Amino acid sequence: MMKKFKDTLLNCVFFTFLMFITFPAFAVRYYGDITEAELRTLPPFCTSWAKKDRELLARHQKRYDFRNPQHLCPGLNALNNAQKMFNDKRAQGYALSVAVSELSYVLEAKNNQFALRPTVLRYRGRAYEMQGNLSKAIADYEEAIRLKSNYTQAHIGLIDIYLKMGNKKEARKRLEQALEKKPNSKLLLKKKRQIKSMSQ
């Protein structure tokens, strides 16, 4: 009887494990359900969207010129969460896939020429970078820079990718191009010191 109990217990453990690895959706979340703490890390329009304040959302849309908050805000929230998931690669991978999917919807939807487009491109580029898809990340950062040539964070993202690839020559080239646009940028000057120290 004891043997039968142990066999049953082992079978239960085995099938529980099998279900866990076969159905990852058991552990996923909807990143459109945004907590108060998460809202504090997102743009103001995400608060008006999450709290269904249509009047404030309309004012935010007029001020920030963005599209599809029902995709943009969950995408940004997923990316923020992914950047904190150091010890759970599986959950991080899911969050990054959500971020790429939601931000891609915003970028590829009709009437997709809007003021925040460079910002959304930069965030999707970051998600691609974290996924290890460096070619797509580079494309997004470059497109963001093409639309907004003095976009420091996009320049930094691009420089960091070339450093990650071990291409210091291209990183220096991109840094000099960025400094031509914003010669007094503290972030760019800090990056210049970092690259210089790597060469010593």
TrEMBL record:
Pfam families: TPR_19
Residue ranges of TPR repeats: 118-151, 152-185
Keywords from the named record: TPR repeat
Keyword Amino-acid biosynthesis: no
InterPro entries recorded: TPR-like_helical_dom_sf, TPR_rpt
Alphabetized SMART domains for the sequence: TPR
Protein name: Tetratricopeptide repeat protein
